[in-house]
Each structure stands twice: as C-alpha cells, then as structure tokens.
C-alpha cells in the first residue's frame, strides 16, 4: 500500500511539473536501460551455462554432446509444468507460437498489456534452451522480456494505449541495439516490425531507448561485439553479377525457411502432449547434431569461423573429416548445414524450447553466402570474390527475405562492419531477396497466422483502423424478434408498437434467422384490420441482402459486405443462430472514432 501511495504522489507531482512529451522521453530512456539489462542478463546466463557444460563435461570429446539439447528441453518442460504452470494474464491465443507475433497480437487486441511473468520467464527458459544446445537465438526472448517490462511500467504510470505501444517498440529497439550494438538498425527494426508512423514524436524516443540500451551493453560487456569483422576486400563492379546470384539464392532460401517453419510445426501439432513433442523433437535434434555438429546452439561461433576463413573449424569434427581437403565436399556440407539449420531451429521451438528466429536466420544466411563465394572461386571462372564479404551479405539477404525487413538487414550488417563500404552490394542482394519472397509470400513467419485471422497491423492506416475495431462493439441486439407463424395483428401489437426500430428479425423455434421485415414493407397495410388474422409474418418477410458471420468475418470483410450489398443493416449469425445486427451508421461512427485514435 505504501508503494502505491508513493506512485500516486509521484504521478501527481509529474502532472504538475513534467510535460507528457518530456515524461515519454524519460520513460524511453529508462525502458532502453531495462531492455539492455534484460539482453545482457540473457547473454551472461546463457554463456555461463555453455561454459559450465564445456568445462565440466567431456561430451564434445566423446561425441556425446548431441544428448544435451534433450536434457535442456526436459528441464524447460519441467519448469513450465511445475513452476510456470499458471496461465499468463492476459493470455496469448494458442495459434501464436513466437515472441514477436504475440507482441503484435497484444498491441492490437489487448491494448499492449503483457503479463509481468513474461519479464522473467524468457530470462530462465531461453538460456536453458540455448545453453544446452537448442538451435535457436536469444533476441526473441530479449524482446519479450524488455517489452513486458515496458508494458508493466506503462500500466504502473497510467500511460495511454498509444504511448504504451511506442514504449514497447522502444523496448524492442533497445533489445536489438543491446544484442548487436547497432542502434540505427534497432530503430529501423522497430519501425518495420511494429508498423509505426515514423514521425519525430516516435523517432526521438526510439533513438533515446537505443542509445540507452547500447550504453548499458557497453557498460556490462565492454566493447565486445557480436561479430568482430574488419572489411579488407572492397566491392568491385565485377562482383555485381555474383551478388545478384546471392540475392536470388537467399530469396529462394527464405521461401524454403518459411515453408519448413510451418511444415515442422504442422508435423508436431499431430502429437497431443507436450512430453511426446519433447521426446520426438529432442531425438530429432540429437540425430541432426550427431551428423552436423555446428547446428549446436545459436551458431554464432560457426559464423565467426567463416568470417576468419576457418571453415574446417566451423564444420567441426564429423563423419566426413577425411574428405575435407576436397573443397566441393566442404561446399556440400555447408549446403547441408544451411538446409538443416532451419529444421533444427523449428524443431527446437516445436519441442518446447524458448528462443528467437533472427540469429539462426543470420547464421543460415552466412553459410549460404559463403557457399556462393566458394562456388564462384572454385568453378573455374578465373574470378575471385571475397568469401567474408559474401558471408556477411548473405546474412542480410536472408534476414530481408525471412522477416521482410530489408532496411533492418541493410543497416544491421552495415553497422556490424563499422562502415558503409558494402552498402551497394547489400542493397542489391537485399532488394532481390525481398522482392522474390514478397511476391511469393505476402506474409512472414511473424505475420502469417495473424494475417489469416485478421489480427495484423500494417503501414496502411485505413486497414489498421478496421483491423483494430472489434465486431462486438458495433453489434446491436435491441431488436424485437418475430416468429414466421405470428399473425399480422400480433406482430403489430407485440412488435411494432413496442419497438423504436424499423427493422424486425424473423427467427424460428431454433433461433435461426429465416428473414427480416422492414417497417416500410408493411406501412401501407398495417392499419387494414381485415388482414390482422388472415396474414402472417412470413407473408411479408424477405431475405436479408447478406449476413455477417461472427466467427469468420473481420471488420474489413464487414465493411466490404456493406459496400457490396448497399444495405443499411446486416444481420450477424453466430454458430448458425441469429445474434444481432450491425448498422452502417454505427459502423462508420466507430470507424471515425478509431481513426482519431490513430491520428492523434
């Protein structure tokens, strides 16, 4: 109670002395700091687990490290079941399987309110998954934890929905900035993924949050960067064709990545219990690790070895060691890694692991870029390209294709290199990869399930307004219902005389809508008493010009039906039964009200 009193007193003081604009800037700084701390905590816990396993266990020497992921998944399973068994409030629908889609859904349908439990759940479960060799990344959990911190802080400070959305985007930018030490890419990522309007009002808080988070990362981790890359080979005009080929390759690989993602999840959805998913997934990951050791964990060390040209160390000890002096065997193994990285990542998720998508995507892209460079250098064209440059650009191509964030991909890789010498090849590869995947697949692994259910915000403001509207908010149920066998007299006395509406739904004994009666249809005969007992409701009723399906139709479909039918009222059918009506006037009023929320 004392804390609540202090918060109340602070808020009163804040309203008197600090403007809303300055308060948002202060909160964005604080959110960036906390998001950076969450990311640093994730990294440190994960590396502690990895180092403990490497030093204390001799699995790697005996080629038995492949059993570690199933142990990690089992620990995660037990913690979820016995420690985190209570459902999160507000809860996330079961069709949403990843961190970023759950945030997008929360921003649309739950006013950006996230459970406080999401602050610490990822900090425990993700390091166990990745530390024990799960083939996933840490960025997704860092975003989830930072966003939950931002959401609960906003609730504590009585922040409105629009500002709360901005602060959650700040937390996301902070997590990305802290992970990669790339503040510009972090801002662009938040804008592209959360479909924010890029105005000065939103740009400044994002910038401050990114700076705050990066400084936090520097304070705790020093100048350590994700990839210590120094550009030695500059881009030449003769390399253009090969970067175009790389763009095509990463575009095709992005489509494969997305297809595999949903295919693996569909396969695991056949299993009814989490434990059966764990067993099957753990065994599958173990088998893949036995034959392809670099699939272990995030894979960042694999990519670092490719940057250094040490592909033998990157591939590790495997069944093909005696053939690694043949460069084509190396190329085939790298292709195999590229193919199975997507499978291993999704299997880890589907088996119950907690992690992110972006880092595995980058690792997979680095392998693909290295493959293209090796093929060019060894195919006998007499032309040599920089393998490290292609490794780097391949990462950007796959990021752009998989999550449809081309600007994020360009600026992220540009910041990693510490300069913009590769800006042109990055633009070439990223543009081609993005165009291929965007034309083939409208939505990404983040947005596909949301889009199919009409729960996706985009940069189209009109569409966002319709998407954010709730059908329940415009349904009217104050209509007097009629029975088709009711006489005209009964209809007038029991219906028309007691209603202030000019529309009457006609339903049968099973509450199924069989027609409607408009007051205009009976106005000319309603005072003819000779018809009161000789005619019934079904004589005058007509079929509605259309209907709204409560379970299937989103607000965009509802608006389209009004346009197609030119109706003023349309009935709503829920589970085959009459449920109410939606009027065009109320729909347009609600639309204008929601539009004001998006523009102010």
Automatic annotation (TrEMBL):
One of its GO terms (cellular component) is chloride channel complex. Keywords: Chloride, Chloride channel, Ion channel, Ion transport, Membrane, Transmembrane, Transmembrane helix, Transport. Coiled coil: none annotated. It is found in: Membrane. The keyword Transport applies. It holds the Pfam family Voltage_CLC. It comes from the Bacteria. It is a multi-pass membrane protein. The keyword rRNA processing does not apply. GO terms for molecular function: chloride channel activity. PANTHER family: CHLORIDE CHANNEL PROTEIN CLC-E. This is Putative chloride channel protein. It comes from Xanthomarina gelatinilytica.
């Amino acid at each position: 109670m004392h804390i609540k009193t202090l918060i109340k007193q602070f808020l009163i003081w804040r309203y008197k002395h600090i403007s809303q604009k300055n308060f948002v800037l202060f909160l964005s700084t604080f959110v960036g700091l906390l998001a950076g701390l969450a990311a640093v905590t994730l990294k440190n816990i994960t590396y502690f687990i990895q180092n403990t396993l490497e030093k204390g266990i001799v699995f790697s020497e005996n080629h038995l490290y492949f059993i570690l992921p199933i142990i990690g998944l089992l620990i995660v399973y037990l913690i979820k079941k016995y420690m985190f068994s209570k459902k999160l409030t507000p809860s996330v629908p079961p069709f949403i399987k990843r961190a970023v889609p759950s945030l997008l859904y929360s921003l649309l349908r739950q006013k950006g309110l996230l459970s406080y439990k999401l602050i610490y759940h990822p900090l425990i479960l993700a390091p166990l998954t990745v530390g024990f060799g799960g083939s996933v990344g840490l960025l997704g959990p860092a975003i989830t934890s930072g966003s939950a911190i931002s959401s609960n802080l906003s609730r504590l400070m009585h922040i409105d929905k629009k500002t709360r959305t901005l602060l959650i985007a700040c937390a996301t930018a902070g997590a990305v900035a802290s992970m990669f030490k790339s503040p510009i890419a972090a801002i662009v990522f938040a804008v592209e993924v959360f479909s924010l309007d890029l105005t000065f009002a939103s740009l400044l808080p994002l910038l401050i949050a990114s700076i705050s988070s990066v400084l936090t990362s520097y304070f705790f981790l020093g100048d350590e960067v994700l990839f210590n890359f120094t550009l030695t080979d500059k881009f030449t005009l003769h390399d253009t064709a090969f970067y175009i080929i790389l763009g095509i390759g990463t575009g095709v690989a992005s489509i494969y990545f997305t297809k595999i993602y949903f295919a693996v999840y569909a396969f695991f959805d056949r299993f009814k219990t989490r434990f059966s998913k764990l067993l099957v997934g753990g065994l599958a990951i173990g088998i893949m690790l036995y034959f392809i050791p670099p699939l272990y964990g995030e894979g960042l060390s694999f990519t670092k070895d490719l940057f250094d040209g040490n592909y033998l160390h990157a591939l590790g000890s495997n069944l093909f060691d005696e053939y690694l002096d043949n460069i084509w065997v190396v190329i085939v193994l790298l292709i195999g890694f590229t193919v199975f990285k997507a499978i291993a990542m999704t299997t880890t998720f589907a088996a119950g692991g907690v992690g992110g998508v972006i880092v595995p995507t980058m690792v997979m892209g680095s392998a693909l870029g290295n493959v293209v460079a090796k093929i060019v250098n060894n195919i006998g064209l007499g032309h040599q390209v920089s393998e490290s440059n292609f490794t780097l650009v391949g990462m950007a191509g796959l990021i752009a294709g998989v999550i449809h964030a081309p600007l994020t991909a360009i600026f992220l890789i540009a910041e990693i290199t510490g300069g913009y010498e590769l800006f042109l090849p990055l633009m070439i590869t990223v543009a081609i990869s993005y165009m291929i995947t965007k034309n083939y697949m409208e939505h990404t692994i983040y947005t596909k399930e949301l889009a199919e259910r009409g729960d996706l915000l985009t940069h189209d403001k009109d569409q966002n307004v319709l998407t954010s509207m709730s059908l329940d908010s415009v349904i009217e149920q104050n209509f007097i219902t009629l029975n088709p066998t009711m006489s005209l007299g009964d209809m007038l006395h029991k219906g028309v005389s007691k209603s202030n509406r000019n529309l009457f739904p006609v339903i049968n004994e099973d509450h199924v809508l069989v027609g409607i009666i408009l007051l205009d249809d009976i106005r000319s005969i309603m005072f003819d008493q000779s018809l009161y007992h000789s005619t019934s409701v079904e004589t005058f009723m007509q079929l509605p010009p259309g209907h709204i399906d409560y379970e299937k139709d989103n607000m965009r479909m509802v608006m389209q039906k009004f346009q197609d039918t030119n109706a003023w009222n349309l009935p709503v059918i829920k589970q085959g039964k009459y449920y109410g009506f939606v009027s065009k006037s109320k729909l347009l009023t609600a639309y204008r009200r929601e539009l004001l929320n998006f523009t102010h």
